[in-house]
Each structure stands twice: as C-alpha cells, then as structure tokens.
C-alpha cells in the first residue's frame, strides 16, 4: 500500500471501514459473540498458559480455563439476579413515593408561587411516573437484550475454547500469507496488538473490581438498599468512558433521592461518586492500566457512539479495546502511521 498515492490510500481505507461496518451490521448475530469470545479469550490467556504448564495438554487446559471463567461469571450473574429481583419488587413502592413527592411539589407551587393546585396538570405525577416506568422498562429490556446477546450461554464458551486451542494457527496463517521478508513483522504486529488489548482488559477488570468495592462501601455506609447491585452497576458502566459514568451516576442518585427522606443523601451520593470518579481517572486507572490504549477522547467518544449504533451496549464496551488494537497495527505500518497518530493521544515523534 505504500506505493499508492495518499488519496488512493485514504479511499481504500474509507472503503474498507465502510465494508467492515456493513459486515458488522449484517453479521451481528455471528460477530458479536465472536467479539466477546475473542476479548474474553485474551483476558484468560495468562490462566490458559499456566494451565498448559500444569496439565501439558492444551485441550484440557482450555477446558479448565473456560470452566473457571464460566463458574466466576455464573456466580456474578446469580448474585446480581437476586439483587435485581428484589429491586424490581420494590419498584411499585418507589413509584408511589415518587408520586407523593410530586404531589408535595404541586402543593409548594400552590403556596409559594400562587399557582392554584387545581390549575396545575392534575395528572402530572401519573405522567411522570409513567414516563419513568417506560424508561426503566426500556432500560430493563435493553439490559436483558444485551445480556442475551453477550452471553450466548451455549456458543460463547465453545468460541473461547477454540480460540485458545487454535491460537498458534494465527501465527502460522500469517507466515503462510505474507512473503518471507514481511512475515516476522506481521506476526510481531499482531501479537503486539493482542498483548496491548490483553493488558488493557486485565487492568480494566482490576479497576472495575476496585470501583465496585468503593461504591459498595459508600452505599453500605449510607444504608442504601441493594448496595451490591448498584456497586456492580456503577462499576460495569464505568467501562464505557464518559457516557457510562454519567448514566450510572444519574440512576444511582435518583434511586437514593427516592428512597431516602433527607436531601443530604443524594447530595452526598453525588459528591462521593464524583470523588470516586476523580480517584479512578487520576490515580487508579493510570496506575493499574497505564497507557495501554492511547486513544484521544474524541476518538473514544466517536467509537462509543458507533459501537452503540451497531451493537448496542456491547458495542460501546467492545469497540474501545478493538480500536486500541487497530491503532497498534496502524502505528506499526509506515504508510498508515498518520492514521494511528490521528486516533492517538500520545505526543508526536520528533523523527516523524
């Protein structure tokens, strides 16, 4: 591609991106679980290597690694499901309390602003409650759809097993495809990209766990019900930069506002969640994750929007490490290095 003019390379890259997006849309049911399987396989690859040293049979090591992943995932899903069932059972009481609060607001408007109670929209509380109920239902449907899409309980472990078992065939494939002079560079680039994504995923798992613990301690100290659910909810949505943090914070603060009588509680929730976010962004993530995926904020926001449009919540999570891996590949190819620089947040090289 280096011998092509710059405009021709740009056209080819744009055409390739367009075809890739089209394939992702059309092949969603195939590619989405495969994408999750690839990332989860990279996540447990260190465990797989340790298992191979212990049992010496790659197939058995892959089975054991996948089994550990399934057991951990099943335990988390069980805990969250029990919390979610209790939360859903509490929803009618929460809506009644919210309706009562809105009625008090109407009385306040009548007394302080002089707008008669009768002239205010009598169905304000019902409409607002219905609106919230519809939003919660839609969120619940989206979460349910995402869980079904992400897990694919029957096929996902199978994908992960075969990716772990046949991973060295990728190296052999690259050696067969590329000419002799470019084989080592191609293999090195692919494994460097997968290594960066693997370190990023491992770091984000640790960050998610730390954030969940911090939020759990915060909610337990304030006496908030379903603290475990909201701790995991905030921590998981924290995987979606910018957008996820905002959504999780708004939902958590609204829940605290409805369930607690004193306004100090939602205010404290806002302050403490904001403090946890500052701590996570400026200390925890840089220390644990480092700069494994050096993407600039604009690229991250755009890829989040694109991922949401194509694959929903799963796309918003998956596309960030995917783009990080693509950036590593672009940085390693001289003719495509400017595009990697455009996506990145690292300073320009003085030799470039």
Secondary structure layout:
Elements (H helix, E strand, L loop, with lengths): L5 H21 L1 H16 L1 H11 L2 H56 L10 H28 L4 H10 L2 H10 L5 H39 L5 H11 L5 H17 L4 H25 L8 H36 L4 H7 L9
Helix pairs in contact: 1-2, 2-6, 2-12, 3-4, 4-5, 4-6, 7-8, 8-9, 8-11, 8-12, 9-10, 10-11, 12-13
Task: Give a structural overview.
It is a single chain. With 352 residues, this protein is mainly alpha-helical. Among the domains are: 198-292; 293-352, no CATH class. It has 13 helices and no strands. It has helices at 6-26, 28-43, 45-55, 58-113, 124-151, 156-165, 168-177, 183-221, 227-237, 243-259, 264-288, 297-332, 337-343. The longest helix is centred in the N-terminal third of the chain and has 56 residues, at 58-113. The protein is globular and about 85 Å long. The relative contact order is 0.10. The mean pLDDT is 77.
State the total count of DSSP E strands: 0
N-to-C span? 19 Å
Order of helices and strands: HHHHHHHHHHHHH
**Class inferred from helices and paired strands:** mainly alpha
Helical fraction = over 70%
Supply the number of helical segments.
13
**What is the subunit arrangement here?**
single chain
Mean pLDDT: 77
Let me know the largest β-sheet.
none
Note the beta-strand portion: under 5%
- Rg over CA atoms: 24 Å
What is the molecular shape? globular
Uncertain runs:
none
Key attributes of the depicted protein:
globular; 0% strand; mainly alpha; 352 residues
Brief overview:
The chain is built from 13 helices and no strands. With 352 residues, it is mostly helical. Among the domains are: 198-292; 293-352, no CATH class.
């Amino acid at each position: 591609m280096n011998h092509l003019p710059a405009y021709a390379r740009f056209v080819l890259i744009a055409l390739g991106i367009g075809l890739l997006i089209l394939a992702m849309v059309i092949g969603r049911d195939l590619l989405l679980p495969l994408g999750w399987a690839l990332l989860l396989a990279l996540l447990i690859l260190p465990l797989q290597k340790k298992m191979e040293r212990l049992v010496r049979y790659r197939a058995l090591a892959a089975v054991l690694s996948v089994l550990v992943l399934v057991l951990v995932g099943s335990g988390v899903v069980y805990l969250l499901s029990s919390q979610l069932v209790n939360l859903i059972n509490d929803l009618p009481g929460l809506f009644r309390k919210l309706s009562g609060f809105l009625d008090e607001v109407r009385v306040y408007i009548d007394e302080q602003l002089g707008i008669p109670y009768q002239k205010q929209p009598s169905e304000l509380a019902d409409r607002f409650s219905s609106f919230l109920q519809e939003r919660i239902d839609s969120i619940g449907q989206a979460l349910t759809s995402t869980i079904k899409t992400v897990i694919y309980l029957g096929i996902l472990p199978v994908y992960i097993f075969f990716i772990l078992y046949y991973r060295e065939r990728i190296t052999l494939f690259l050696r067969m495809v590329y000419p002799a002079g470019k084989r080592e560079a191609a293999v090195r680039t692919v494994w460097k990209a997968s290594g960066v994504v693997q370190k990023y995923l491992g770091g984000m798992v640790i960050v998610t766990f730390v954030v969940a613990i911090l939020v759990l301690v915060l909610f337990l100290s304030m006496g908030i019900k379903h603290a475990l659910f909201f701790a995991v909810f905030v921590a998981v949505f924290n995987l979606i930069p910018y957008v996820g943090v905002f959504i999780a914070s708004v939902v958590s603060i609204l829940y605290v506002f409805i369930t607690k009588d004193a306004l100090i509680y939602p205010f404290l929730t806002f302050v403490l969640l904001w403090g946890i976010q500052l701590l996570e962004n400026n200390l925890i993530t840089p220390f644990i994750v480092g700069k494994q995926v050096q993407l600039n904020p604009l690229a991250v926001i755009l890829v989040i929007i694109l991922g949401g449009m194509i694959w929903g919540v799963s796309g918003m999570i998956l596309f960030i490490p995917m783009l990080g891996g693509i950036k590593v590949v672009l940085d390693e190819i001289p003719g495509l290095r400017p595009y990697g620089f455009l996506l990145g947040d690292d300073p320009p090289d003085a030799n470039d």
